[in-house]
Structures
1.
Amino acid sequence: MASNKMLRFVTVDRQTPEKRDAEVRTDDFGEIYREFAAERAAEQAGRCSQCGVPYCQSHCPLHNNIPDWLRLTAEGRLREAYDISQATNTFPEICGRICPQDRLCEGNCVIEQSGHGTVTIGAVEKYVTDTAFDAGWVPAIAPHTERAESVGIIGAGPGGLAAADMLRRAGVQVTVYDRYDRSGGLMMYGIPGFKLEKDIVERRNQQLEEGGVTFRLNCEVGTDITFDEIRDAHDAVIIATGVYKSRELDGDNADAQGVVRALDYLTASNRKSFGDAVADFDNGDLDAEGKRVVVIGGGDTAMDCVRTAIRQGATSVKCLYRRDRANMPGSQRETQNAEEEGVEFIWLTAPAGFEAALAEAKTGGAAVSGVKVQRMKLGEADATGRQTPEIIEGADYVEDADLVIKALGFSPEDLPTLWSKPELEVTRWGTVKADFRTHETPLDGVYAVGDIVRGASLVVWAIRDGREAAEAILEKLDAKGAVIAAE
Ligand code: FAD
Ligand code: SF4
Ligand code: SF4
């Protein structure tokens, strides 16, 4: 039965944690939302109506037991709330920060449908876990028994790390291989600090390392080590390499200086937040300071680029997207944040090429000076029901630009070729084929999780895949008879 601290949605309005003012927050790369105060978290959690069939839970990819941890938070029983929350989610404090809640848990909260504004689920999830870390309730990874079996995980993003956490807690020996110098995948080098501060990710890396996970960083599979070497060294292998091939643009001067890829731009910016030397940033190429910036795309990556450019001190930041606001793939919350920070959206526009000037170039080639923009209108709906953008003839114009950032999405690298492993089966989109429940590929003992299977997706889905693959591996190892490590 719901306690008397619940069902307060009629008398208490929905509130998110305080958002820093746009003029202040754009001076740094810190997160834009402050933490809930204890009373506010309890009050907001108490708005939940404790549904018998909680749609929030069924629309959370991890099926988090949301009503239970909301009730415990409302009752001030935070340690129990944390225990329940972490039972289904490896990184609740990360999901609480960066899940697009409006499309997942909160978007399906019934209170919204009764006109009272959805329960603030993500911010409470973040608050509960941040509090647990501060209070020392987050247990170290300390397996009861050390097992002799080992699993090699290729890719230290959320998918690989979620699997590593679960396997290691079960006593399995785990080695994570990653080509980057830091663990965390896109949580470290893709997503900017104003959405997810890097010490939140580093805290998890440290926990895994202290718990006995071995990290082999700066190790590119296919170059520094072969896939077969990894397979030979372990009882099972998980491929969690994400998707990194940027979709490109055609047209005049598409390769001009100053036309750059979103991930190169964001990675450089994230590296600078660690104080790293980044040649292409330090020479100005990937730095938006003092430039007229145009970002092309309407997804979350585009939103991260425009907001990064604002923080770097661009003189203007414009975003071109070929559909309208209602039809953009990015989260409405992030678009609103970008607008507050001074980004101008030019809806229904697409690039047809670039203008470039030799005189502007630092070395060889020509430097971009503008984007040739085509105006679009929305036409007939396609098979998926989405209206197709159509060019309005004769309405082209040039948008001046010193830096153009292409944020048009990502596709998988060609793993069978890069890893000399033609037997690794991929779909026609290049994603790795794997069983949707166990995540095992047709190669015995080889599993695949996260974006490399789903295509560009979300952190929460990668976590779910990683956890499910770890469970399937443990089941298989147990079926063979667990091997306990010698003392
Ligand atoms: P990744 O996080 O991509 O990690 C893959 C790892 O594999 C990387 O560390 C890479 O270095 C390593 N690797 C790749 N190839 C090799 C190799 N050959 N050898 C060794 N290592 C290799 N999702 C959200 O939920 N919320 C957001 O707000 C959000 N914002 C995003 C913003 C940007 C700019 C981008 C690009 C993505 C965003 N996403 C967001 C999506 C999310 O980051 C991904 O869906 C998620 O990180 C996928 O996890 P993964 O473990 O599959 O792969
Ligand atoms: Fe919502 Fe994401 Fe948390 Fe699930 S993991 S409850 S979708 S914020
Ligand atoms: Fe509570 Fe909303 Fe979930 Fe119902 S749908 S249990 S009201 S958070």
2.
Amino acid sequence: MNYDLVSGKSVQRVLVTGGAGFIGSNLVRMMVESGSYHVVVLDALTYAGNLANLTDVLDTERCVFELGNITDASRVRQVLADHKPSAIMHLAAESHVDRSIASAAPFVETNVKGTLVLLEAMRELPDARFVHVSTDEVYGTLGPNDAPFVETTPLDPTSPYAASKAASDLLVQSFVRTHGLDAVITRCSNNYGPYQFPEKFIPLMTLNALEGRPLPIYGDGQQVRDWLHVDDHCYGLLAALKRGVSGEVYNFGGDGERTNAAMVSAILAQTGASPDLCTYVADRKAHDRRYAINAEKAHRELGWAPTRNLDEGLQSTIAWYTHNRTWSDNVRSGAYRTYYETQYNTTL
Ligand code: NAD
Ligand code: TDX
């Protein structure tokens, strides 16, 4: 813990892996703006990483960027030795289910091996805390009348993505038990908000609606997701960092269960796009039918609860994509890949 000379506030140095991605960049911005953290972002800038997500906070006194792959043990050790963080918040991952169905190997490489590399490196920082950001998808799927997932629901992943996340959760738990690592695991439902890569449902549907392109709804569109605004997820992650008990798992959910078809209707209504754009396409293989989260443990033990209502949060998110077309145009054209090179006068 350091002290800020101007404000006199205590400031924690935290390394955020995957800080150039969707949730990571929202988390980094929240941490920097709070004035309570010095943030070091470690990110490989895969297709999902976009430094433009961090333009307003990057390279300030409170936020530095380190290019690096979490599967590269010597690079990880070097970054930890250089910055000596008191905590790692681990968000770097291959995160898209459809990509894991097309090709699972990168998911095992980053999500399993990359997490293991970080855990091994943590042994050289014995006083540091590890916040492992996982997902409700590790629990598998629910029927319409099943009770929501609790932290003790057995792991039963369906997709290679979910299996790789479940494997990483088990590795974290094994390091807590075997090596006395100080680590907490969080499992969250579907996030939505600004800066989400437009391969994911909400930005994809919103941008397609704005551009008059087809909206590809998988199967019958009656799958249910529990949507949580990314800011609420980030509040939960910071609560877990501060108040989580090592070895424990905390679920976060948004009390926002909706069918995909209902979400598309809301997007069409707000963008004014024609319902004729809805195109029912072949279903995702082994498509999980429903996710729902019981987050009572996080309410009780972390003092956390979602603050954003889904209707309002979705409205402001659609408005963000509507008004930030340069960001989305650069992502869709691939121009965002040059941002790092221009900023740091080098090549990726
Ligand atoms: P994202 O795909 O938007 O971002 C992932 C980030 O990790 C990118 O910046 C990418 O460059 C980086 N990265 C990928 N592989 C890397 C590697 N080998 N080394 C270093 N950096 C690498 O993901 P997201 O949606 O922001 O998800 C963040 C985390 O939250 C993930 O662990 C995901 O499993 C989890 N999660 C996501 C959601 C959701 O709805 N998006 C819900 C629950 C949990
Ligand atoms: O084109 C589409 N059409 C469609 O009907 C896409 C991309 C998705 N869908 C459906 C599949 C899901 O039922 O929409 C729902 C949401 O899909 P995704 O955005 O791909 O999210 P999901 O598969 O539910 O996983 C997300 O939440 C949990 C994140 O991508 C994961 O990283 C997180 O762990």
3.
Amino acid sequence: MDDLEKEAYADIESAENPEELKKLRIKYVGRKSDLTRNLRGLKDLTLEEKRTLAPKLQKIKRSIEELLDSKEREFSSIKEAAKADLTRPGIRHRTGHLHPLTIMERKVVDIFSSMNFSVVDGPEVETEHYNFDALNIPANHPAREMWDTFWLKPSATSEIIAKNLQISEGAKERPGERLLLRTHTSPMQVRYLETHTPPLQIIVPGRVFRYEATDASHEANFYQVEGLMVGKDVSLANFKYVIGEFLKKMFGSETEFRFRPSYFPFTEPSLEVDIRLVGGKSKSNANLKAIAESRKSDWLEVMGAGMVNQKVFEAAHYNPGEWRGFAFGVGLERLAMLKYKIPDIRLFYGDDLRFIDQF
Ligand code: FA5
């Protein structure tokens, strides 16, 4: 039997196909095999002989059967593999990725965080008070026209409060006040000053809305990042340094920018920051040239800014003249257009995956 076991092992190992294996199964463990015959013959032996031989024979049978089974599995897996065409190209799964504006917002947040600015959030549904009045833009002031406004129906107010949308405390304090979709992130200046004590430095990224016609550089829904730094002796020099650092970190030291005098009721003095699209030292390309052509200028305005008007501190119940600060509001799409050389702002909100998939 020991010889038979060895022989069976060698035969099974060298079997080349399932048919051969089938024959070996019949030969070694089939009904008419020597092994089965011997097992059957056990009944004619003495009890003593049965006790020693039976377990031995059964063990040999089991191990031959196990080897046959494993060899059979081997043949069936080879058969499965043969069915697969290993030369066929794989299926590429589409993975998700961030929208270019999200990438841009994160870059802005990273740079300002590295300069110790905190990031805060504000409500998109604002009151007339925070969006305009507290920023020194009274009802009859011509500057209100700078921000064409989406007003909410008076009946919407209670609905919004009921839905628990982010809405100013002021709306509850001054019931009946008109609500609007914020036209800029500047309302957060007063809101934050009311609830915190300077010195402070924050940025407020957020979505803003304007009722205006769209073109290559204007959208009705866009993103701004507000900045506010307040201290005892914050000056315009601090502003120039912080913004200069920000622009250099964002666009590299070769990009040219300029500070240009401007007007906002909530800053004094006020200025705007432009980035050079074509000409000078700036590295340009066809898309940036297209923006320049559509705007009829070699420069693209990216932010409004200035020293916080003392009237804003007063609106937040501060003593006049006690604190000084600078504020700015930068357009996120405009930054992304410059960074990624995108000729039209409307691409960000379109559904063209060929554009979105590039990021
Ligand atoms: C403001 O909104 C002021 N709140 C900015 C400010 C903040 C001034 C703090 C002083 C102190 P302005 O309307 O210029 O300003 O908009 C600021 C920036 O938002 C612009 O420079 C531009 O980059 C972007 N922006 C303005 N309008 C649009 C628009 N329709 N589509 C896309 N981006 C826009």
